[in-house]
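Technical annex, item 7. During the second reporting period the consortium partners agreed on a shared format for inverse folding records so that results from different sites could be compared directly. Each record opens with the tokenized structure and is followed by the designed sequence. A conforming record, contributed by the partner at site C, is shown below for reference.
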């Protein structure tokens, strides 16, 4: 599941950039690209929720002995920061989809831009501190 979650990261980023371009250039094809972006984002959400609950470091496994959640940057990132920012980004993508359906380009564009910023901040890039980072293409 982690590999699928990581591959979808790139799909979502590409779709998000495409949809952003369509919003700011006022292309009607934003209707279909925003739909595919929303589908990919919600699929990613369900995979992420599964990992958050039952994954290798999921909450059902509990914290290791002696680890305090907010003091440990690894667990704080994967249990608090990453899920919270990604859920907010997916909400923004969903709102942007509703704006794109009625061709409200400006509002859709701004919602997508904010979602992109949240996603870029919350992705576990390889250069992230304390071992929280993931490879560019894990498992490949």
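Designed sequence (site C submission):
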């Amino acid at each position: 599941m982690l590999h699928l979650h990581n591959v979808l990261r790139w799909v979502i980023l590409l779709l998000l950039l495409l949809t952003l371009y369509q919003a700011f250039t006022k292309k009607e094809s934003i209707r279909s690209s925003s739909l595919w972006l929303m589908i990919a984002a919600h699929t990613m959400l369900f995979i992420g929720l599964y990992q958050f609950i039952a994954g290798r470091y999921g909450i059902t496994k509990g914290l290791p002995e002696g680890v305090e959640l907010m003091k440990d940057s690894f667990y704080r990132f994967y249990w608090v920061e990453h899920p919270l920012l990604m859920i907010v980004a997916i909400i923004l993508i969903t709102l942007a989809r509703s704006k794109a359906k009625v061709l409200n380009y400006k509002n859709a564009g701004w919602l997508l831009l904010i979602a992109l910023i949240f996603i870029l901040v919350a992705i576990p890039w390889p250069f992230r501190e304390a071992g929280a980072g993931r490879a560019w293409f894990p498992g490949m």
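The radius of gyration is 16 Å. Helices lie at 2-24, 30-54, 73-101, 105-122. All partners now use this format for quarterly exchanges.
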